[in-house]
Amino acid sequence: MNKVAVIYWSGTGNTEAMANAAAEGAKAAGAEASLLTCAEVSDISAHTDAALSQLADLGFVGSWKADLSAYGQDYASVDLRMAIDEAGHGVTTMNGEQAADFEAYAADNGEKGDGIGLYVAYSNLEYEAEAAPYTLTVNEAGQTVLTLTADDGTISWIKQAE
Questions:
Q1: Which of 46, 99, 125, 148 is in the most buried spot, having the most CB atoms within 10 Å?
Q2: Model's pTM, two decimal places?
Q3: Which CATH code of 2.60.40, 3.30.1760, 2.40.128, 1.10.490 fits the domain covering 60-159?
Q4: Buried (b) or exposed (e) across 61-75, using 16+ Cβ within 10 A?
């Protein structure tokens, strides 16, 4: 039996209603479905088959380097990198030192394959989940760019060649 986790954030209740409908649809199709808010992601002891598949299918697995050019000269010497493996485990380093250890989740919540969705990272160090809308695009150099927009700002990550 397939396991599906429907993870959502809702400020007004509209997204929660859609998440409920998605979970019910998965159950009707024979899957074991869990409905969780972003804050509840910490209750997942392992990634579901569907979550890992979607993480890989969307292109999140791999090595990324932050584009900090929008932050000015103060960040010119900062080397911020992130790596997400096939098991959904991620690590962020700053200037070679580990800065974060997390579990990554992503959901394509736009048109199928349009590169728009919700990214959730659950910190293995702080035991908290953070969510941010994302876009995946391709820049003029042909590189995949992951842009995360959160309350504290926007950051773009450029996928590195393997």
A1: 148
A2: 0.69
A3: 2.40.128
A4: bbebebbbeeeeeee
